[in-house]
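User: Hi! I have a protein structure encoded as tokens and I'd like to know what sequence might fold into it. I'm fairly new to this, so please keep things simple.
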């Protein structure tokens, strides 16, 4: 396989952001006198964008349009100020990116996290590695919609078949399949190997540097 580019998911793939996400959402829930959730709960809540995160975090009796919209705004305000408090790259990620860059592969980030947060976190924690950093701008374009992934490949001047998509959720693997990318699932993130393989992963990684063997 002669890959020319690698696209990465962000949360659960490049960085462990779970604690900051959980703290922000739990802060909102507490202010509204709703039950909060554990880190383990948030592992399953993430991956489909902020709107989905807010909705599934709320009690079913509060999952109406007005409450979701209000809690989303509160989440955005809190998370904007606290999105890099505890968030850090996973062990081995910097070494992997250094190696990929030394091989002159084209690198990009494609996340369902809001675009401004995606850019803010990458700029703060992983500066200088990626030609394109794209988060969610339009709800209809969120993964597993392949539109943005395909557009990123066009901007990188590579074919989708020449690119790997690295992610940690079923949505990531479905995105890879839909965009005709080579889907690689990571086992240090928010989902299980079984879920990743069932969702179309071509292979899974136990450690970031394992990706080098696929190039």
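Assistant: Happy to help. Inverse folding works backwards from shape to sequence: for each of the 215 positions I chose a residue that suits the local structure. Here it is:
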């Amino acid at each position: 396989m002669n890959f020319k580019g690698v696209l990465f998911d962000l949360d659960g793939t490049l960085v462990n952001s779970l604690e900051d996400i959980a703290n922000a959402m739990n802060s909102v829930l507490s202010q509204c006198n709703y039950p909060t959730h554990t880190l383990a709960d948030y592992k399953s809540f993430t991956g489909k964008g902020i709107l989905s995160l807010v909705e599934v975090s709320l009690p079913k009796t509060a999952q109406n349009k007005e409450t979701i919209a209000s809690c989303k705004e509160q989440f955005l305000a809190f998370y904007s100020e606290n999105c890099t408090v505890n968030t850090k790259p996973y062990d081995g990620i910097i070494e992997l990116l250094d190696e990929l860059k030394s091989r002159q592969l084209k690198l990009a980030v494609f996340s369902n996290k809001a675009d401004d947060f995606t850019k803010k976190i990458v700029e703060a924690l992983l500066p200088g590695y990626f030609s394109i950093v794209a988060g969610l701008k339009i709800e209809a374009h969120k993964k597993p919609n392949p539109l943005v992934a395909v557009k990123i490949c066009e901007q990188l001047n590579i074919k989708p078949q020449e690119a790997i998509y690295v992610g940690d959720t079923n949505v990531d693997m479905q995105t890879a399949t839909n965009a005709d990318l080579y889907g690689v699932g990571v086992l240090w993130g928010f989902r299980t190997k079984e879920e990743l393989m069932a969702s179309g992963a071509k292979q899974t990684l136990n450690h970031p540097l394992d990706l080098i063997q696929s190039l």
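A useful reference point when you look it over: DSSP finds nine helices and eight strands in the chain. Feel free to ask if any position seems puzzling.
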